[in-house]
């Protein structure tokens, strides 16, 4: 999450732009892809966004690990000599 100015926060989660604008110390306005969604509790929404950012990083890590595994398996299969004779 990036703090743009006094009370303005922006984050990108799963391709969506999340913008929080603090109205005061307790209340914020929530925008998703520049569409106003409503007012919310400032500390609650900041905590939830932080949690979603962490989950997104975990998901991206799993996808990278899975892709690495497939790449390694593909290389093993390509380099493997398979006998045409059945035992």
Largest sheet: 5 strands, antiparallel
**Average of per-residue pLDDT values:** 85
Number of strands: 5
Shape: rod-shaped
Give the % helix: 40-55%
Q: In sequence order, what are the helices and strands, one letter per element?
A: EEEEEH
Total DSSP helices:
1
Low-confidence stretches: none
User: Order of strands in the sheet with the most strands?
Assistant: 1-2-3-4-5
- Kindly provide the radius of gyration, computed on alpha-carbon positions and rounded to a whole number of angstroms: 22 Å
CA distance, first residue to last residue: 60 Å
Overall SS class: alpha+beta
- Binned strand content: 25-35%
Describe the secondary-structure layout.
Elements: E1 2-5, E2 8-13, E3 16-22, E4 27-32, E5 35-41, H1 42-79
Antiparallel strand pairs: 1-2, 2-3, 3-4, 4-5
What brief labels describe this structure?
87 residues; alpha+beta; 5-stranded antiparallel sheet; 44% helix
